Structure prediction request, 590 residues.
Amino acid sequence: MALVVQKFGGTSVADASKIKAAAAKAIARHQAGDQVVVVVSAMGHQTDILVDLAREISDRPSAREMDMLLSTGEQVSVALFAMAVQAAGHKAVSLTGAQIGIRTDSTHTKARIKSISTDHVRALLDSGAIVIAAGFQGIDQNGNITTLGRGGSDTTAVALAAVLDADLCEIYTDVDGIYTTDPRMLADARRLGSISYDEMLELASLGAGVMHSRSIEFAKKFGVKVVVRSSFKDIPGTLILAADQAVKRPVSGVALAKDEARITLEGAPDQPGSSHALFSTLAESGIAVDMIVQNVGQGGRADVSFTVPEDDLADALERTERVAKAIGAEGVSHDHRMAKVSVVGVGMEAEEGVAGRMFSALSAEKINVHMITTSEIKISVLVDRTDGPAAVKAVHKAFGLHDAGSEPVDATAGGSLPKSSPLEVVRRLEGMEDLAIEDCLLDSSQALVTFTDLPDTPGVAADVFQEVGRAGLLVDMIVQSHPRNGRAEISFTVPAESRDKATDVAHGIAKARGATVADVPHVAKLSITGVGIRSHAGVADRLFKPLADAGVNIDLVSTSEVRLNVIVAAEHGGTSLAVLRKAFGLHAER
Ligand code: ADP
Ligand code: ASP
Ligand code: MG
Prediction:
């Protein structure tokens, strides 16, 4: 007898007949001899309707009352779902988040799960009932109703699957799997047979709305086998798996985050502590920053740029301006009409020229790239919001994702997922959804090349990385800062043994464009690895502070959900490793 969690999204329970059809799926599983927990979202667009209603009453409704209001959507759908199961002659019990015992912190409208008690659900399952759990909601220590953030029912489902040690978590939705990009935006998108946790985590957090990214954090931490499939078509869908079981492609998918804003702290004193001052102030209000880019300081001053979701712009801007005054920076600029386009693939690390291909595709469409950041498995670029869809299309095509054909799905793949012992993971965490830091690594094998004074015109990054790719150089980190006065700065790292070749190529490129090149033959790259690194506000700052305290200046930063990388001077490598291990509670270097 297996235990299966089935989650039905809003469209899958939009009306009475859809609720009956979804209930039939749960009953079929139950009749096949499995224990079934169903997690249900609010019907159709009910949550949007409630949000609009609140806005009609107040411009700034309190977050506590929003949660009280929004949680009603799921309370309606679980009751109806349970009635549908009962009407078909089977036992069912509906439960709210509080009744299950989903404990969260008190961050209303984006609460994180701390713990889930399983006794009640298990007793009901053992009594032969199908348990219908309300998605998206929990209860804090003072008994207040909380919600997990829009799209949070996925997180309820995977978290329940984790604590119940379920054999499978099925996400039923209105698409028949995970696609190479949003199939509603690009008809050429193709369904993937499987995808790794890390890739899905990045795609979800970089804008692919199909899964709540925090649900994938749970899936990865607790080794939950997840399948995303259609509520309406009986086909197997896409499996989300551990990296060693998924196909390694240089690029698996393209994501668009279309509501991004960029802020630049201009002319900040280029010294340890400036970044800490900025990012600690942002972290205080729980703003998750992305695409942090600091240009190489000139005249003792540097620009620090980063992106935030547009909703957080006003707050982030106000805080950045406050910091600018406090540290004596020259000013603050911002732009709210930005979009972030990202390509994600676990096989990208080992393949030359991936970045060049992406930038060339954008350049061919005359799309200007304002900022670039990369990590081992993703490349993100910031473009004008109006260029977003065209950028996705161009990049999707450049990697041949359109003609890959939908992959056949092997429903038995990943059947014997090696589970990371949930108990062991929980022991390392204070709460189930806490940040999980796995390791801190030092890589002293790279050289850093920086172009300054590049003209800020479409195609510059493309030219640079096409030539670098043609020279056969395996590029690791790439960072392009926000341009000032029409000039851009691009830095990248290569293996130290390729440094001579890289600087030759770089000088050639620079000469043709009136730019200058600087290089550092050896730098130290420090990486913090784990789960939830970008989604937990303030992680970057936990790294900036100890490095600033130790007097270490950071040259480059890149963030992703599973990794945070910084480049510092080679001579600071050892000290940095020691202070970071201590700051993140890791044991002494192994
Ligand atoms: P549900 O209400 O079932 O939770 P969502 O609307 O949250 O459904 O998620 C499904 C939607 O996600 C799809 O209709 C699709 O438009 C969108 N989507 C975005 N990116 C992708 C992708 N890479 N693959 C599949 N669907 C995607
Ligand atoms: N009903 C909530 C929302 O619309 C949660 C969910 O559907 O996952 O965001
Ligand atoms: Mg959803």
Observations:
- The domain at 3-247 is CATH 3.40.1160.10 (Carbamate kinase).
- Residues 9-10, 41-42, 47, 73, 135-136, 150-153 surround aspartic acid (ligand 2) (CB under 6 Å).
- The chain has two domains: 3-247, 258-403+436-583.
